[in-house]
Design brief:
Length: 239
C-alpha cells in the first residue's frame, strides 16, 4: 500500500500553473491555534511568577492536543491537492483517532483546581485551567472538522458521517482510559498487549460506557455548533 502511494506521489508532475499545496490563508487556522496556545502558556508563566507551577502535565497535554491537529491538517491538505486517497486517509485516520482523545481530555484537568476563596491565585487558576481546556478543545474540534471533510471527499458523505459518529464516543472512551485507567496514546507502542487487555475489560465497565456516551454527547454538541457556523460562513461567501 505504502509503495503504491509513494509511486503515485513520485510520478505526480507539478506545474507552475498548479495552485500551491499550502497557502498562507490555509495556515491561518494553525496560526490562530498557535497564538491561543501561547496565551495559555503565558497564563502558566504568570502563575509560576506568583508562586509555583500548578502542574506541568498541562503543558504536555496541550502539546499532545496538537498532534491530531497536525495530522488532520496534513490529511486535509493532501486530499485537497491530490484528490481521493482512500488508503492514505485510512492509515492516518487511525493515527489521528489514537491521539484525538488527548484534546478533550484536558477538560478533566480541571480536577487540579484547589479552591481557596481567600487566595487571589484561586481565580487565576480557574481562568488558566479553563483556558487550557478551551484551547485544547478548539484543537480537537478543528481537527475533527478537517478529518470529517476529508472522509466525505475521499469516500462518501454517508461514510464520512458514520466515521464522525464513531469517533465521538471513541474519544470519550479514550478519555476514560487516560483519566481513570491511566493509560496514554504512547502505550499502543510500549505496552500494546496490556493496553488491549485493558480496553477489552473496559468494554463492559459501566463507568467507561457512561463516560464514553457523555463525552461523546458533549463533543457532538460542540462540533454541531462549529459545523453550522462554518457551513453558514461558506454558504454566505458563495452567495
Amino acid at each position: 500500500m505504502l509503495k503504491r502511494l509513494f509511486n503515485r506521489f513520485w510520478k505526480y508532475r507539478f506545474f507552475i500553473s498548479d495552485p500551491p499545496i499550502i497557502t498562507v490563508e490555509g495556515l491561518y487556522p494553525l496560526l490562530l491555534l498557535l497564538l491561543l496556545s501561547l496565551v495559555a502558556l503565558t497564563y502558566h508563566m504568570i502563575r509560576i511568577q506568583f508562586k509555583e507551577a500548578v502542574d506541568f502535565s498541562m503543558d504536555w497535554n496541550l502539546f499532545l492536543s496538537w498532534i491530531p491537529v497536525l495530522i488532520a491538517f496534513m490529511v486535509d491538505v493532501t486530499v485537497k491537492r491530490f484528490g481521493k486517497l482512500p488508503k492514505w486517509v485510512a492509515f492516518w485516520s487511525i493515527g489521528w483517532l489514537l491521539f484525538f482523545p488527548n484534546a478533550p481530555y484536558m477538560i478533566t484537568d480541571l480536577l487540579h483546581l484547589s479552591v481557596d476563596m481567600g487566595s487571589d491565585l484561586t481565580w487565576h487558576d480557574i481562568i488558566m485551567l479553563f483556558y487550557y481546556a478551551e484551547v485544547s478543545l478548539f484543537n480537537g474540534l478543528i481537527s475533527l472538522y478537517w478529518m470529517h471533510r476529508s472522509w466525505q471527499k475521499t469516500y462518501t458523505n454517508t461514510i464520512g458521517n458514520i466515521l464522525l459518529v464513531i469517533s465521538l464516543p471513541t474519544a470519550g472512551f479514550g478519555i476514560y482510559l487516560g483519566r481513570i485507567r491511566r493509560w496514554n496514546s504512547w502505550d499502543i507502542i510500549h505496552n500494546p498487549d496490556e493496553l488491549l487487555s485493558a480496553v477489552w475489560q473496559s468494554l463492559t465497565d459501566r463507568t467507561a460506557l457512561i463516560l464514553s456516551f457523555e463525552f461523546g454527547l458533549l463533543l457532538s454538541m460542540l462540533y454541531l455548533v462549529l459545523w453550522v457556523l462554518l457551513r453558514f460562513r461558506i454558504r454566505h461567501i458563495n452567495d
